[in-house]
Amino acid sequence: QLQASGGGSVQAGGSLRLSCAASGHSFRSYSVAWFRQVPRKERELVAEIDFFGSATVEDSVKGRFAISRDNAKKTAYLQMNSLKPEDTAVYYCAAQKVYNKYTYWGQGTLVTVSS
């Protein structure tokens, strides 16, 4: 089970840190990702980190967002800096990548960036 938190409303240029807390004993063996979705659009990958700690970030947020994980706390993070209005979305965390699809999903947390 995944619990996403940390969303909120900020002005453009601001920062937020999202957290994804996992329950269970296998977190350290899972890849973890953050996705986001806006109404009438498909959910899009933002960043992902594998169990070795190797991270990738999509071009649209590269240089502004960073994904990390703390296996001892069974938590993954998405640090979002220099936020833009187009970053407004519901952000979801996901874990356990199998055949390029994620098995477990959190409930989503809303990020609203105003200009």
Give a quick rundown of the structure:
Helices cover 0% and strands 55% of the residues.
Largest sheet: 7 strands, mixed
Unreliable runs: none
Rg, nearest Å: 13 Å
> What global shape is seen?
globular
**Helix-strand pattern:** EEEEEEEEEEE
Query: What's the N-to-C terminus distance?
Result: 34 Å
Average residue pLDDT = 95
Tell me the β content. Answer: over 45%
| Total number of strands | 11
Give the proportion of residues in helices: under 10%
Number of helices: 0
Structural class: mainly beta
Write the layout of secondary structure elements.
Layout: E1 2-5, E2 8-11, E3 16-22, E4 32-37, E5 44-49, E6 55-57, E7 65-70, E8 75-80, E9 89-98, E10 101-105, E11 109-114
Parallel strand pairs: 2-11
Antiparallel strand pairs: 1-3, 3-8, 4-5, 4-9, 5-6, 7-8, 9-10, 9-11
Descriptive notes:
The protein has 115 residues and is mainly beta. The protein is built from no helices and eleven strands. Strands 2, 4, 5, 6, 9, 10 and 11 form a seven-stranded mixed sheet that branches. Strands 1-3-8-7 form a four-stranded antiparallel sheet, with no helix packed on it. A hairpin with a 2-residue loop joins strand 9 and strand 10. The mean pLDDT is 95.
